[in-house]
Every structure is written in C-alpha cells, then in structure tokens.
Amino acid sequence: SESSSDTPDSGDMDFVDFLYQWLDYKYKTATAASLDKNIELTTYAGYEGNVKSPIEPYFREHPITLNGLSKEMIEEFYQIQLERVAVTTVKHYHSAIHCALNYAVDKKILKANPADRIIFPKLEKFKGDFYVDSEVYKRTQINVFLAAALHSPAEAAFVLAATYGLRRSEVLGLKWSAFDFSHDCFSIRHTVTTCRAKGEKVVVKKDRAKNKSSRRTY
Question: The dihedral of CA 54, 60, 63, 65: what is its sign?
C-alpha cells in the first residue's frame, strides 16, 4: 500500500517530490479548456524550467522534507544562487518555490509558508542600451543590423522590430488583419511565443497582447 509520505497530503514527503506534484497540478490548470484558468502555459514552463534547474539539483543534494523546510534553508539556497546569477533570476526561483508552498498551505499540508517575507538585495535600475554610430563600419549600427537582415526570410520582422521597438512575440503575432492600409497603420492584437513544457516545444498563440498597455496602434 502507498505510504503516507508518498501522498500529496503529507508534509513528510520529500520537498522536490512535492514540487513535481505541484507542477502536475499547475500543468493541468494551464492546459484546461476553461476560460477562467489562472495560469498561462508559458508561466508553467517557467516554473518547470526553474524546478528542474537549479532547484531540484540543489535540494536533491540537500534533501529535506516539506515539513522540515525552513526559511533559513530557502534563504541559503538563494544566497548560493546569487553568487552566479542576478537578483532578477533568483526572484524567478523564489516565485516557483513560494507559489508551490502556498499550494501546500491551501491544501492544509503546511500551516504557514516558510518562503514568506524573504528580503532580496535591491535591484539595480535597468538602463537600456541602443544602437549608435559605429567607427568600425563607418555607419550607424542599426544600418549594419538591417543590412545583415536584407533578403532574410524574416527581413520584414527585423525591420518592424527595429523601427517600432516591438517585442519578438508581437512581431511574430502580426496578421494581415492587423494592418489598416487606408489609414497607414497597424495594431498589436496577437502574440506568438514558444516554450518547453513536459519536454516538448510548444507554440503559444494568443489573440491579445501581453498586457493592456501593450495593445497599441502604430
């Protein structure tokens, strides 16, 4: 018979094993036909990727039960990761761990979430870069970029991205229906992205932009 430590309602199960049960739940939610699903497949793919590396390898090497997991253990894991990656990346790891442990609290497996109220180092303000004049090519870097894209099957996508600053998903999601040639404009209404879920590459098509502010017309 199945032992209590193997069941999803037991805090005595291994933390990593619990993470994979949580991932199965998230995958079912992300792929549900219901319109009110609370997670996108791309979000699930991010969770899955972070669990597989680096969360699983670390906690396989430092095994702990769900009940035994403490805030200090989680913080130690984050501190080690901060030695190799940026704070933003570690926050993605935290998002997966915190969400999984919230699930454990919702299921009454844990009384409280040990990943609550963890403080991260202050993020450095993002400073975007841009193309400038190139001394090497004696012309602007953007023209070097466009010359390299010339005659490429994706030339139109490169030109649109460079001209309007579109996200890759927005360029790939453009349809003829988005163009209004009578008014010389086009609108961002669709997006196309890819992700890996359950070991397979998945194309995710959405009839909407990333957020409300992303729905715009040029």
Answer: positive
**Residue of 152, 158, 151, 186 lying closest to 172 (CA atoms):** 158
**pLDDT per residue as tens, the chain (218 positions):** 344 444 566 899 999 999 999 999 999 999 987 655 678 999 999 999 999 999 999 999 999 999 999 999 999 999 999 999 999 999 999 999 999 999 999 999 999 999 999 999 998 787 877 777 766 656 788 888 899 999 999 999 999 999 999 999 999 999 999 999 999 999 999 999 999 999 999 999 988 776 777 889 99
Assess whether the previous peptide bond of 153 is cis (omega < 30° from 0).
no
Q: How far apart are CA 57 and CA 21, in angstroms?
A: 17
Residue found under tokens 């030339």: 155
Q: Which residue has the tokens 């649109």?
A: 160
Cβ 132 vs Cβ 54: under 8 Å: no
The number of residues making up the chain comes to: 218
Q: Are 133 and 90 within 8 A, CB to CB?
A: no
Q: Exposed, middle or buried, 169 (CB in 10 Å: 0-12/13-18/19+)?
A: buried
Burial tier of 90 (Cβ tally within 10 Å: 0-12, 13-18, 19+): buried
Please name the helix (run of DSSP H) or strand (run of DSSP E) that holds residue 191, with its range, or none: strand 191-197
167: which 2 tokens? 């996200």
